[in-house]
């Protein structure tokens, strides 16, 4: 139905008075122009397809050759994002800039460096004098650190990565008052390896680097003490 | 009373100071635990996605391209293309979370081309080049059903509104501007613009920053009425695909049979890619069009030159997209000494060990690269505008209604609009 209506309102293909009026040609002139146009049109089509046949192999060669040359020159291994703990200044952007929420960056604990403090710079608020587990004394906004008694006066601190939002507060506290055993790392079980890591873009310390897939972590090996 | 208060205040202040400075005084020595009691554990290192899985992604891309090409050119099935685009949206979009995608890979390739130390994983090379090669032979079948960004817009296009040709032509030029800008920002080391402005990544990942979500929602909302706004007016990869598609060996046709010029397909394309038959229109006289062409050809260098001049002027503002330039600017405002309400950038810089002179040296280097980059970018834009004018001024004669290979997404919507094609498909299906 619809189709028929449209067909009826079609102008005939050879009905060109409007165009002729516009160009100011007579009907006889039109016929010659049209004939000429058809010839040139055919020529143009031939010329274009000839050009196409020439350009296509050239473009194919350029794409394949260019990609191949880059492939040969570039390092073969795949890379992932990681934080260089020596450069990180715990600015807090890791928590907010990641495309994932909560962030793929978590606090990681190098136990070998830890002093197992009673009053922990990473666990307790800096004004706290009472080394306990009271919520108001804790630094971590999500209570992601578990504190376990070892032997007097030592305590072990474990990060619950499901709770950690990567804000870096504890890392900053530990760096200021402890040995710096807490540090920030991109956790690759969560990170989706963005082409352009959103945190890397925002990190003010240039701490984000690309590391080879085979060594995806930069584990802190030195604390403040020698 | 006041004196006691002051003394109290002072005491508090010094107490705080003492606390901060002598803080390590509460530290204890490293404990020596009995090994059987407690061995300090090594930090966990959950690994990234297995490397070989990326070859599955590459294979999936190649397979999807083959199927899309089959649906678009061989079986001519719009439904097949729709199903495939859903599958690709699920796999490349929601499952692979949108990274890496061919659209963004343009930047990696350019980066690796300019900076030899940049890593270029195999998957990036494959994602960049496979769709290009397919396009050279079969038109933009990648856009038809494989690209997750295209698919999400294709599937949410509810009520297509046709844009006037001149608007879509002019807005379409923006893709080249965007491509040029993105490549310039890669060259200067500022940012991967296309990735940071990807409208759909937040949707694929069910979360993201607020601006990303707003941008994605806006593009989708516009895309409900105006077909594929990202593809047509922004996508830099689409700009390259469009150029290559003009050379394609085969391409989607509205009907493989003869077009009878019934004009029924005219409104079928939501992307304004169908070009009407025009071979019965008389043209203006040859000398006149020759003069115009000559004029435009002369205009081209003028446009490129004015682009270059504009580029030189734009280099300064453009350089503020680089974080080092921003940092220097902030530092000059704040002064080098630490202040209380310092920005995160300046505070982090003060804690680092770069000297001010080194920073200035570094930013000068960056400014220089912005200068050449910006000149190059704006002349490129001038060239694109000139080339567009020239291509618009050349009247191509067409006997049939045909899709414009550069803008056609090969989505297959026009097949059903063509009465000839409908007959053909009916006959084909009747055959056992
Ligand atoms: S953004 Fe950079 S400096 Fe800030 S916490 Fe993350 S890695 Fe550290
Ligand atoms: S690569 Fe993406 S997911 Fe991983 S840390 Fe950076 S922003 Fe987050
Ligand atoms: S303080 Fe921040 S970085 Fe540390 S464990 Fe808690 S959430 Fe994670
Ligand atoms: S134009 Fe760009 S975003 Fe759209 S489908 Fe093609 S490659 Fe994808």
What this model shows, in words?
The complex is a heterodimer of chains A (226) and B (432). With 226 residues, chain A is of the alpha+beta class. Chain A has one domain. Chain A is 35% helix and 15% strand. Chain A contains 6 helices and 6 strands; from the N terminus they run H-H-H-E-H-E-E-E-H-E-H-E. In chain A, strand 3 and strand 4 (154-159) form a beta hairpin. The longest helix of chain A is centred in the first third of the chain and has 47 residues, at 27-73. The termini of chain A are far apart. Chain B is mainly α and 432 residues long. In chain B, 62% of the residues lie in helices and 1% in strands. Chain B has 18 helices and 2 strands. Chain B has a two-stranded antiparallel sheet. The model of chain B is unreliable at 7-28 (pLDDT under 50). At the A-B interface, helix 1, helix 2, helix 3 and helix 4 of A face helix 4, helix 5 and helix 16 of B. The complex binds iron/sulfur cluster (SF4) (4 copies). One iron/sulfur cluster binds at residues 107, 139-140, 142, 144-145, 159, 164-171 of chain A.
Q: Over the alpha carbons, how many angstroms does the gyration radius of chain B reach? A: 29 Å
Broad structural category of chain A = alpha+beta
| pLDDT averaged residue by residue of chain A | 80
Pick out the low-confidence regions of chain A. Answer: 1-23
- What is the tally of helical segments of chain A? 6
């Amino acid at each position: 139905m619809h189709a028929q209506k449209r067909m009826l309102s079609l102008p005939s293909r050879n009905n060109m008075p409007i165009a002729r009026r516009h160009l100011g040609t007579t009907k006889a002139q039109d016929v010659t122009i049209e004939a000429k146009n058809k010839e040139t049109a055919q020529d143009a089509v031939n010329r274009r397809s000839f050009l196409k046949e020439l350009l296509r192999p050239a473009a194919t060669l350029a794409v394949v050759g260019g990609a191949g040359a880059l492939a040969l020159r570039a390092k073969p291994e795949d890379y992932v994002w990681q934080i260089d703990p020596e450069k990180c200044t715990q600015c807090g952007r890791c928590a907010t800039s990641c495309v994932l929420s909560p962030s793929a960056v978590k606090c990681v604990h190098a136990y070998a460096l830890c002093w197992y403090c009673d009053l922990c710079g990473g666990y307790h608020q800096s004004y706290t004098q009472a080394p306990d587990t009271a919520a108001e004394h804790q630094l971590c906004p999500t209570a992601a650190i578990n504190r376990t008694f070892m032997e007097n006066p030592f305590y072990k601190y474990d990060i619950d990565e499901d709770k950690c939002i990567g804000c870096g507060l504890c890392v900053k506290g530990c760096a200021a008052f402890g040995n710096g055993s807490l540090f920030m790392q991109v956790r690759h079980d969560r990170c989706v390896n963005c082409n352009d890591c959103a945190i890397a873009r925002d990190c003010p310390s240039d701490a984000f680097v690309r590391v080879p897939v085979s060594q995806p972590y930069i584990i802190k090996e030195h604390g403040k003490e020698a | 009373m006041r004196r006691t208060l002051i003394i109290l205040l002072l005491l508090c202040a010094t107490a705080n100071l003492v606390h901060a400075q002598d803080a390590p005084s509460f530290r204890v020595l490293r404990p020596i635990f009995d090994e059987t009691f407690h061995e300090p554990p090594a930090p966990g290192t959950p690994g990234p996605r297995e490397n070989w899985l990326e070859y599955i992604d590459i294979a999936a891309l190649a397979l999807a391209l083959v199927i899309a090409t089959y649906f678009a050119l061989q079986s001519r099935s719009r439904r097949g293309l729709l199903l495939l685009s859903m599958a690709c949206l699920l796999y490349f979009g929601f499952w692979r979370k949108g990274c890496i995608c061919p659209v963004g890979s343009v930047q990696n390739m350019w980066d690796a081309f300019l900076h030899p130390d940049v890593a270029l994983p195999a998957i990036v090379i494959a994602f960049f080049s496979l769709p290009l090669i397919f396009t050279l032979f079969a038109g933009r079948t990648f856009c038809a059903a494989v690209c997750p960004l295209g698919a999400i817009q294709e599937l949410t296009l509810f009520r297509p509104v046709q844009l006037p040709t001149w608007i879509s032509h002019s807005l379409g030029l923006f893709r080249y501007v965007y491509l040029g800008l993105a490549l310039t920002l890669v060259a200067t080391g500022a940012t991967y613009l296309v990735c940071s402005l990807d409208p759909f990544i937040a949707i694929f990942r069910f979360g993201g920053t607020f601006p990303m979500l707003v941008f994605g929602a806006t593009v989708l909302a516009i895309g409900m009425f105006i077909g594929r706004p990202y593809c047509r007016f922004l996508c830099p990869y689409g700009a390259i695909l469009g150029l290559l598609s003009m050379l394609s060996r085969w391409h989607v046709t509205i009907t493989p049979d003869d077009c009878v010029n019934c004009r029924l397909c005219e409104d079928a394309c939501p992307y304004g890619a169908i070009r009407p038959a025009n071979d019965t229109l008389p043209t203006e006289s040859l000398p006149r069009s020759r003069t115009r062409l000559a004029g435009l050809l002369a205009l081209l260098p003028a446009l490129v030159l004015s682009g270059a001049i504009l580029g030189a002027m734009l280099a300064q503002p453009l350089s503020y997209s680089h974080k080092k330039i921003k940092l220097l600017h902030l530092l000059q405002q704040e002064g080098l000494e630490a202040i209380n309400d310092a920005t995160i950038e300046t505070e982090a810089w003060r804690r680092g060990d770069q000297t001010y002179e080194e920073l200035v040296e570094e930013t000068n280097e960056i400014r220089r690269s912005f200068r050449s980059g910006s000149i190059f970018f704006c002349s490129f834009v001038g060239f694109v505008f000139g080339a567009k004018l020239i291509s618009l001024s050349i009247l191509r004669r067409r006997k049939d209604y045909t899709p414009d290979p550069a803008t056609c997404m090969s989505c297959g919507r026009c097949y059903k609009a063509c009465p000839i094609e409908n007959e053909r498909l009916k006959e084909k299906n009747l055959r056992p």
